[in-house]
Structure formats: structure tokens, C-alpha cells
Amino acid sequence: MFTYGLTRYDCKILPIVSQMENILIVEDEKRVADLLKAGLEEIGYNTVVAYDGIMGLRLFQSNDFDLVISDIVLPGIDGFELCREIRSRNRNLPVLMLTALGSTDDKLDGFDSGADDYMVKPFDFRELHARIKVLLRRAVQKEDRCDSLAYADIVIDMNKHNVCRGGVDIKLTPKEFKLLVFMVENAEKVISRIDIAEKVWNTHFDTGTNFIDVYINYLRKKIDKGFGKKLIHTKPGIGFIFTTEP
Ligand code: CA
Fold this sequence. Notes:
Elements: E1 22-26, H1 30-42, E2 46-50, H2 53-62, E3 67-71, H3 79-89, E4 95-99, H4 104-112, E5 117-120, H5 125-145, E6 149-151, E7 154-157, E8 162-165, E9 168-170, H6 174-185, E10 190-192, H7 193-200, H8 211-223, E11 232-235, E12 239-242
Parallel strand pairs: 1-2, 1-3, 3-4, 4-5
Antiparallel strand pairs: 6-7, 7-8, 8-9, 10-12, 11-12
Calcium ion binds near residues 28, 29 and 74.
């Protein structure tokens, strides 16, 4: 069984304390950044500050954060661009945009880029804290929901029969679910149609039907279509393999 991606606190370059939630602050105004850092650390969060968008992106790429607070107008890349970059790599990490701008258009741009929430400066710190708590709780619920069987960015909750890939929920029929579980449990091994027929359908292979290929195609449409890396591969004349490296 593969369980990649379920550990939240590995591969760090910064000495981040693992029991506290880690917040990345991206803010070029030093006074505001310092206030945020001091305020958040006082209430028990661990923080790292980036003073421009590029540094923010680098820190995001090399650490595990639980939440990002980002200003919009930043040197290097702006907060919208940063948020899009974060979203393309992690769909679950909460991003809260913080800005002096307050027009409706800016808010819409923020949500378009994938931000989860938005606050206008100057802000009430208690309100910021309340929003952070909501975002963190929501993110933890997403993680809890996906906590049983995993391969690459696919996570299967065996109790609730939920499947998500890259944080996106995928609806499967009971048979598709059973087929996916079988494939994930046998990831990186070639499995034959006979194996699938016996283990998923509890039947012996009937050469007169192509129902397995039909179901594999259903699953491909839901699991692979629209996602970067294909996981279900055909081995001509043999069967299939579920892998990131065909
Ligand atoms: Ca700024």
C-alpha cells in the first residue's frame, strides 16, 4: 500500500515547530508584516515572513504551511499571481488575501485566483484571527476526510467511500470505486483483466465482453481526465497498470 503525501511535516528547510500551525505571511510593508508576525505568534502560530512575491513562492515550495496570508500589491510577482501559483500546486492550502485595496473588482480577482478569503487593511486583528481559525478548520476537515488509502495525489477514504485527487472530490459509482481501490492497492504492478474480473466482479473472465475496458474508461474519465499526470495505463496484450511512471 502506498501512502505518499499523508505526512504533513516532512521535507522542511526551516526549523519550523511541528505542533504549531505554520503560517506564511507575504507582505512587503515591513510594519504590517511585523505586526502580523508578532500578533500571530502571540496567539500560538508559527510564522515565516516573505517581503516579496518571489520569496513567498520559494518559501511555499520548500516548506509545508497550513495557511498563507498574502498582500496583493507586492514587488516581484503580485498576490494574485502568487495565489495562482500556489493553487496550481496545492488546491487545499488556505490563502487569505490582505490588501489596502477594497473595491469589488479586487475581491473578485482575488477569488478568481483561488484565494479562500479576503480582508481589507486596516483590519481588526480579532476578525483576522477568527477567519484564520475558520480556514484552518475547513482545511483540516478536508484532510481528515481523505485519510485512508493513497497513491500519488489520489486519496481514498475507505470508510466514507470518498475519493479525491489533488484535493478535488470525485464521484464514483460503487463498481468504479471498487475497481479504483483494487488498482491503487496493486499500484505499480501490471494487473490482468482476469485479475480484475475475479477481484472486482467476483466472476471469471468472459472473453465475449469488454466490460472491464468499459469500466476502465469510465474510471479514466473521472480519475485522469483534466489532471496533469495519467495514472491508469494500458499494457497491450497484458492488462493495466496504475502508476505515475508507466
Ligand atoms: Ca504591498
